[in-house]
Amino acid sequence: xxxxxxxxxxxxxxxxxxxxxxxxxxxxxxxxxxxxxxxxxxxxxxxxxxxxxxxxxxxxxxxxxxxxxxxxxxxxxxxxxxxxxxxxxxxxxxxxxxxxxxxxxxxxxxxxxxxxxxxxxxxxxxxxxxxxxxxxxxxxxxxxxxxxxxxxxxxxxxxxxxxxxxxxxxxxxxxxxxxxxxxxxxxxxxxxxxxxxxxxxxxxxxxxxxxxxxxxxxxxxxxxxxxxxxxxxxxxxxxxxxxxxxxxxxxxxxxxxxxxxxxxxxxxxxxxxxxxxxxxxxxxxxxxxxxxxxxxxxxxxxxxxxxxx
Length: 309
Fold this sequence. Notes:
Layout: E1 6-11, H1 18-24, E2 30-34, E3 49-51, H2 53-59, H3 61-67, H4 75-84, E4 89-93, E5 97-99, E6 112-119, E7 152-160, E8 163-166, E9 169-170, H5 176-182, E10 195-197, E11 207-211, H6 212-215, H7 228-238, E12 243-246, E13 250-252, H8 259-282, H9 288-291, H10 293-306
Parallel strand pairs: 1-2, 1-4, 2-3, 6-10, 8-12, 9-13
Antiparallel strand pairs: 4-11, 5-13, 6-7, 8-11, 10-12
Helix pairs in contact: 2-3, 3-10, 5-8, 7-8
């Protein structure tokens, strides 16, 4: 297995999209695409690594078995592969997020730096609220706090950032009910970035950079609908890892979604995000009660493998 310092991890059920082709040709980065049963059998990359279903079963049989098939959580296998390749920085992206020419440059992740910081309210923070689209909110933000998102810029703090969540122009990552109401196509004002918060905030898995250290505890949970990456983000922040939000570096040309199906898959979050965050502030491992025994066991398997590489 070849060593790579910076790795991009993606899942897909499609032939190579425009986004995948561009990520595959980025200098200084190595793309790892995790396939699924629906991925075309002749899927190929020019420069990166494609992990076929049979590759995944051979490399990580226990992890593969418990994750199941036809799910985005197969991306966890790509994370483990990246750790085995000794990657220091790992980016998790979606196959419908087309990178800009400056994608992956001038990163904050892994650096100790001073950026604008916002005070949270009730221990939580919505990153979209401080942009030029304050009427929208990030997927997974507790609905109970929507009316209280009047955040104060508390100046600049010098912080070591373990996560850099870069934004996305085009179709943003918002809740299904927010998307059904507003149907936005966004062009975020780059002058609002970068920023952070002293509170826990949601970040996704579609254009995010993580250090090797945080990735050992970052797991896209199974059987929790569209909260798989959101609850992962809440968990690692409850452990003390810090996240910075940076300017958009992709344009999302969103794959076809049935918004009513998305809504149904988000109900678990609408009902539990508020309670989960209060619980995580007391004890990070209280997440176990929210994700269920099988999902937690899968996470334990992931962490066990991650600890050995």
